[in-house]
Amino acid sequence: MNQLLYHLPVLQVVIPLLAAPACVVIRQRHLVWLWATVVTWACLAMSIGLLMRVYPTGGAITYEIGGWVAPWGIVYHVDALTALVLVIVTGVGAVVMLYARQSVNDEIPAERHHLFYAAFLLCMTGLLGITVTGDAFNVFVFLEISSLSSYVLIALGRGRRALTASFRYLVMGTIGGTFILIGIGLMYMQTGTLNMADLAARLPAVNDTRTIRAAFAFFTVGVSVKLALFPLHVWLPNAYTYAPSVITSFVAATATKVSVYVLVRFTFIIFGAEFAFTDMKLDVVLLALAIAAMFIGSLVAIYQTNVKRLLAYSSLAQIGYMVLGISLTNVNGLTGSIVHLFNHAMMKGGLFMVMGCVMLRIGSVHLRDMAGLGKRMPWTMAAFVVGGLNLIGVPLTSGFVSKWYLVLGALDRGWWPIAVLILLSSLLAVVYVWRVIEVVYFRDPPEDAPTERCEAPLMMLVMTWLLLGASIVFGVWAQIPAGVSKAAAQMLLGVTP
Amino acid sequence: MTILTLDVTTLIVLCLVLPLISAVLIAALGRWPNLRDGMMVVMATILCGVVCKLVPLIDAGARPELNLVNILPGDHYMPLGFKVEPLGMLFALVASCLYILTAVYAVGYMRGHHEKNQTRFFVCFALAIFAAIGVAFARNVMTLFVFYEVLTLSTYPLVTHHGTDAARRSGRVYLGILLTTSVSMLLLAMIWTYFLAGTLEFTPGGILTGHVDGLMLMVLLGLYAFGTGKAALMPFHRWLPAAMVAPTPVSALLHAVAVVKAGVFTILKVGVYVFGIDLLAGTGASVWLMYVAGFTLICASLVALSKDNLKERLAYSTISQLAYIVLGMALANPDGVLGGALHIATHAVGKITLFFCAGAIYVQLHKTQVSELDGMGRRMPWTFAAFTIASISIIGLPPMGGAWSKWFLALGAADAHQYPLLAALMISSLLNIAYLLPIPMRAFFAKPKPDGRHDHDDHGHAHVHDGLSEGWAMTIPLCITALGCIAMFYFADPLYHMLQPIAAHTQTVVAPITAAAHP
């Protein structure tokens, strides 16, 4: 048992990786679903196990693959931040898998189910690998695994527009991936190492070379594409809108978060905060783009009539919050950023699951088709309200905890106007959330529309509420997510608690 | 009675849980209206009884608390919890007592007016009372803010109850202004306060002393004053007239008592327990606010004069009266604060009577305009008598309760040597006379217009449903509240005595308790 615990970091990646091809072997669609569900829940158990090993006591774990010592071998590295992101990815994955069965049956042709689940597990493998690895090149490898599988998953969406959405994502994603690869290559050229800890030790000596500056620029831009930072977000709205509901929930809740994580790890740990923010002035760039994302994303969301697209633009704005926290470069700001990774995964995952339920029942996620839906799907729509309150950041929801830390972080830096802007942008969230609520609850459906109850299947409903309920629980009782995030922020900034 | 043996924590829990249980039961009993409404009145009475049980304890100097959960980890000490002190006690007392009467009245009104969705209406009503009690007992700004928002959201369906386009538009104004101000300013003020003082606990003497001064103190005060949109300080007052599209019981309890009073209560509480009136008086940071309040109270009175719609006139009157309370806090001396606090109670009783009357007139006579009321006094003598009494109380003449609060406010203004404001108070009282008293005078003394008689033949008689004469279900509560206006003149002493401690701390400067707040 101890042996098994010791190998948790690598098992976390290896198990879903091996489970994916097994899906193709199993083939029978119910069994495949069962298999994928069991694997994702096992992954969740492992990541919670890892989190408990590093938080609140225990410190970081370094795991050498095959016993090869760093910097020659590949190491996996788990600290509070890593473990939190692992929990986000596996947690959403596990919940989404239980939710998936009915939705997938409805949206994906039966003969492709086994491929769908295989791609899903591969995508999760990629995301987990990016998170857990301590090797820069490995980041690129896993990034490609997750990207390629998510192109496939998005292309499985109903309607031909899913194909163009996926293709656009493919083009943009590949450019991003290539930029990241160039960045890593340049770093390797200058330091001769790919191990992250080793890179962090050797980079300061060569910081002032043009090569490293170029590497930094390439890498940051590449990651910004992957995390859909404004104005590199153009792949995101269509991809989220036209992907199958299950995939939208999963990708929206996890993929961008992992990219934010990569940005945080590389800027703070590998390049070092001093180089990134003092020499390269990354904070100014991120700050400007984050504010732009917060406002433009929300403003565009207000004018959407497709609710999935509305939520996609809202994601753009929420990513703005996460990046804003990074640009504040202090403990409170960074805590806000990290805790928002966790909180936003719950709320946006849950909201897209709501839209999956709506899609299943009325076959559309268009506002005009949703009039009066509050009476027909009361539980589903109540879940939407909860998620909406989270997006706004009403107190006692997890969105509030994120905003609390972000505003404190802005005040800590003496950036008053930023604090005001954060709150003003949540007012825009009020508008776009309220538009949906008003249509759903207070507008009468057209005369000829059906009026009978059509509540979503119990399992889908329970899973939706599980995520959104968690977002309330962690809003009232934010000790663990905020505690982990704070520990992570202190670790990143090298502040002793 | 088992309630006699309950310990004080249980009492606080009951105060908060009873309205929630009530909401659940109302929803469950929706199919049996008589049972539902009976249960609602019984629950309201029990709630009021429980709140009253707390009063002697608070009088005796106890400050019972109840902590639910600490939201943030480690050094960010941020409990969600309750602590009962005199000001909150007063607000809870006013809200819960008037809830009983409003419940009875609302049953009569909703049935008499054949309103739809009565169950949803009463559920939201109970939730609003829950939120009001939460605001009253909140131990820190955070908890208060939470319940403040619950109050906003739970009253939205009440404002838009009719579901018409006009109702929805007003609902948007209502929600828009209240959410915008609270999220953009009150929330900012709250986080800023935490940033400065390291705590958000309401503490006698305030928590900001020594942490902020000069212009920043004024800005912070402004964020609180305008961020509390429910206090309807100009220019953020538009939501209150907009909310008048709601059925009248809503206007009565929520927009004369629970919602607007939650606003001014917040301002008073923040002034006394976050800033501390010594800090405000010492730095003069609140002088500008006095003049904003003075401006609002004159202006709103002038607008009220020009309104012919009875409910709108009362709404502007409310805006004006709320400014009195804000003024009391801004004066930052014991008399001002006490006057402001007393005004929460006296104005609540007076204004709820006026709204009850307006609703009764609407249901019985189908009149909404002041100009249509000529000669109606003979048809509804009790209602218009009550209206007269309440008007006199609002104006602030003895022997009505309103006299005391205006007396203390005037004293406070004189104490602060703000003679222009003293004048403003007096002018406003004259304006009150000008816009309130003509209404009963027309009703009693003017000749009825010819079409009034015709109307009487059609609708003049109360409809009788379910064995309950809703005419009386409306008239009795408004008579009781009118009597309350008189009683508050003769028996104001217990209230004054209970409130005394909130002004008592002003003489001793209490050190900021940043560290003490951490257990």
Q: Could you please describe the fold and organization of this structure?
A:
The complex is a heterodimer of chains A (497) and B (519). Chain A is mainly alpha-helical. Chain A has a domain at 281-497. Chain A has 20 helices and two strands. Chain A has helices spanning 2-6, 8-26, 29-54, 80-107, 113-132, 136-155, 161-191, 196-206, 210-226, 236-242, 245-279, 282-302, 307-328, 331-362, 373-376, 378-392, 398-412, 416-442, 458-476, 479-493, and strands at 61-64, 75-78. In chain A, helix 5 (113-132) packs parallel to helix 11 (245-279), helix 7 (161-191) runs antiparallel to helix 9 and helix 14 (331-362) crosses helix 20. The longest helix of chain A has 35 residues, at 245-279. With 519 residues, chain B is mainly alpha-helical. Chain B has one domain (2-450, 482-507). Chain B contains 20 helices and four strands. A two-stranded antiparallel ribbon of chain B has the order 1-2. The chains are: A mainly alpha (497), B mainly alpha (519).
> What overall form of chain B do the CA principal axes indicate?
globular
What is the total number of structural domains of chain B? 1
Structure annotation, total helices of chain A: 20
Oligomer: heterodimer
Strand order of the largest sheet of chain A: 1-2
- From the alpha-carbon coordinates, what is the Rg of chain B to the nearest angstrom? 22 Å
Distance between the termini of chain B: 36 Å
* Poorly predicted segments of chain A: none
Strand order of the largest sheet of chain B: 1-2
Summarize the structure.
The complex is a heterodimer of chains A (497) and B (519). By secondary structure, chain A is mainly α.
What topology emerges from the helices and strands here?
The complex is a heterodimer of chains A (497) and B (519).
Chain A (H helix, E strand, L loop, with lengths): L1 H5 L1 H19 L2 H26 L6 E4 L10 E4 L1 H28 L5 H20 L3 H20 L5 H31 L4 H11 L3 H17 L9 H7 L2 H35 L2 H21 L4 H22 L2 H32 L10 H4 L1 H15 L5 H15 L3 H27 L15 H19 L2 H15 L4
Antiparallel strand pairs in A: 1-2
Helix pairs in contact in A: 2-3, 2-5, 3-4, 3-5, 4-5, 4-11, 4-14, 4-19, 5-6, 5-11, 6-7, 6-11, 7-8, 7-9, 7-10, 8-11, 9-11, 10-11, 10-13, 11-13, 11-14, 12-13, 12-18, 13-14, 13-17, 13-18, 14-16, 14-17, 14-19, 14-20, 16-18, 16-19, 17-18, 17-19
Chain B lengths: L7 H21 L4 H27 L5 E6 L8 E5 L2 H27 L5 H20 L3 H19 L5 H33 L16 H14 L11 H4 L5 H28 L1 H7 L3 H20 L3 H22 L2 H32 L15 H15 L6 H14 L3 H18 L1 H8 L4 H10 L4 E2 L2 E2 H21 L2 H12 L15
Antiparallel strand pairs in B: 1-2, 3-4
